[in-house]
From TrEMBL:
Gene Ontology molecular function: any one: xylan 1,4-beta-xylosidase activity
One Pfam family per UniProt: Glyco_hydro_39
Known EC number: 3.2.1.37
Every Glycosyl hydrolases family 39 N-terminal catalytic domain range: 93-517
Active site: E200 (proton donor)
Residues of the signal peptide: 1-17
The protein's name: Xylan 1,4-beta-xylosidase
One GO-annotated biological process of the protein: carbohydrate metabolic process
PANTHER family hit by this protein: ALPHA-L-IDURONIDASE (PTHR12631:SF8)
């Protein structure tokens, strides 16, 4: 171990945790709860142009490697006017302008470069149709904002947030873009994409009325379907779960309202999208997460979708699903983002999203993590990101764990798994949440374990006794034990131990990159018992996440 890291760990509070507490976990290898649902495979960011820059390209490659051609990326500003220069909460493609006589000028070069990069890296577009080009905006000036992380959030809502001054030109722009995409990438490819109008139209991102948004959406969907008849279209990516009554009103419009573009009844709807965010705050000098806030958003939105027979079975994408709202903001309550608070929150929250879908009987297709990277910013600057300066954060390694779970879901039970109703109502404020999910794909079994608490404070480890039932005649063994914690899969800890360098030398960078990969630790021994049972034990520290991979083939 690096000498700096050794010194650092001697001082870190997680090295001083109290005695462990016992946790009993059971996995039934003979059970089958249906196929694994890879809802984790969606990501996104405000800044579209980062995708084509060096660290953005690297991170896209890491995301694409998780599940090639099944990972999706959603981004704002794909239609925003500008020269493609990125900034915080800003980006542009300049795809639309007009000549002196008001005739459209289309330019696809920048947006093509973005989508080309996605596809090269094994990632597909979740196409957000927005925002309003300057030449089409009903109130274009001021247009470009220059927001900083300490500025007022509403300063970003400038000319790009307004309805079009010409609805026919708006529809034609979307049609020409969709048609160009089909011609460039092929119909078979673009039929796999998600096409969705705007972002959070119930708050400042949209400065028109609700009815004007429905009209905007109708024209966008009509345009996409005119160019690509079988395209997957949906929305509304509303803020705050159901967004008051906005989601319900949108669904009613799509089901039986008058389509403002075609005059027909209803608007095509292939998937439903909304946003759900947590609410971290500082409490007695430490960060306290608000997982309950995020889960309540999801719970309420699912309830609305389940009300309508026409929408109950439609795929749902939680189009932004995060511990809080602003990826490019900074602050004391956001100090969780660099280390294991973020990774353990992610591990604990994703299974509960699926649990809520099961509760309401709805079809959860994806939960999109609104976090990418911020090119050219300081290392570990406190942004909500998966990577910093090309160095992946611990949270990305949780997604690497998720990607290894394939096949079918196995029945599991933990005596320290906080009940769904309790975590939705209260979060994790008393006893820690030590949970489990497991999958089986042929002879390979994956057991995913997490140890989470809302309070970013040290605490005792969980002494886990894992009992397996339904073993085959082959005894099997643990072939891999992947771990994310304070000292594994954690470049942030190493960076601090190196003295927090903002310009690491070659040796330091190599060490940081190595620490950013998914780490393996020694595997516990599987002890076979009678009647197809087995057991193993392991210690899981607070904010730790483990993935055990077991092999039950004849010669593991």
């Amino acid at each position: 171990m690096n000498r700096f890291l050794t010194s650092f760990l001697a001082l870190t509070p997680f090295a001083l945790a109290a005695e462990s507490f016992p946790v009993a976990i059971q996995v039934d290898l003979a059970g089958d709860l249906g196929p694994v649902q890879p809802i984790w495979r969606f990501f996104g960011a405000d800044e579209p142009n980062y995708a084509t820059l060096p660290h953005g390209r690297k991170l896209l490659g890491d995301l694409g490697d998780l599940k090639p051609k099944s990972v999706y990326f959603r981004t704002h500003n794909l239609m925003t006017s500008g020269d493609g220069t990125p900034a915080l909460k800003w980006g542009s493609t300049g795809m639309y302008g007009e000549d002196g006589r008001g005739r459209p000028i289309y330019d696809w070069e920048i947006v093509d470069g973005i989508f080309d990069t996605y596809l090269e890296k094994g990632v597909r577009p979740y196409v957000q149709i927005g925002f309003m080009p300057e030449a089409l905006s009903a109130k274009p000036l001021p247009y470009r904002h220059h927001w900083t992380p300490r500025a007022q959030y509403d300063e970003i809502y400038t000319g790009w947030t307004y309805p079009p001054k010409d609805w026919a030109k708006w529809e034609e722009l979307v049609y020409q873009w969709a048609l160009h995409s089909k011609e460039r990438y092929g119909e078979e490819e673009v039929l796999q994409w998600f096409w969705q109008t705007w972002n959070e139209p119930n708050i400042g991102y949209w400065r028109g009325t609700r009815e004007e948004f429905f009209r905007l959406h109708d024209h966008a969907v009509a345009a996409v379907r005119r160019a690509i008849p079988g395209a997957k279209v949906g929305g509304p990516d509303v803020a705050g779960g159901p967004g008051g009554d906005f989601l319900e009103s949108f669904l009613e419009h799509c089901i039986g309202g008058q389509n403002e573009a075609t005059g027909d009844t209803g608007t095509p709807l292939d998937f439903i999208s909304f946003h759900a965010k947590g609410w971290p705050e500082t409490q007695d000098g430490h960060v306290r997460m608000g997982i309950a806030n995020q889960l309540r958003d999801i719970d309420r939105a699912f309830a609305v979708i389940a009300k309508f027979p026409e929408t109950r079975s439609l795929p749902i994408v939680i189009g932004e699903s995060d511990p809080e709202g602003c990826a490019a903001c900074q602050g004391e309550n956001l100090a969780y983002r660099n280390g294991t608070m973020y990774s353990s929150y992610t591990a604990a929250s994703f299974p509960r999203k699926l649990d809520l879908a099961q509760k309401h009987g709805v079809n959860l297709e994806g939960a999109l993590t609104w976090a990418f990277e911020f090119e050219g910013e300081n290392l570990f600057a406190g942004f909500r990101a998966l990577s910093t300066g090309g160095i992946n954060k611990p949270v990305l390694n949780v997604f690497r764990m998720f990607s290894k779970m394939t096949g079918h879901v196995l029945p599991t039970e933990s005596d320290h798994d906080i009940a769904l109703d309790s975590i939705v109502a209260h979060g994790v404020r008393k006893e820690p949440d030590v949970g489990v999910r497991a999958s089986r794909d042929g002879d390979q079994v994956c057991v995913f374990l997490w140890h989470y608490h809302d309070d970013d404070l040290p605490g005792p480890s969980a002494a886990i006794e894992l009992s397996l039932s339904g073993l085959s005649t082959h005894p099997g063994k643990v072939t891999h034990h992947f771990r994310v914690d304070e000292t594994h899969s954690n470049a942030f800890t190493v960076w601090k131990a190196l003295g927090s360098p903002q310009d690491p030398d070659a040796s330091e960078m190599a060490e940081l990159l190595a620490a950013s990969e998914l780490a393996e630790i020694s595997s516990p021994s599987l002890q076979a018992g009678e009647n197809g049972t087995g057991r193993l034990t392991l210690e899981l520290p607070r904010q730790g996440v483990s993935l055990l991979v077991l092999d039950f083939s004849e010669n593991p």
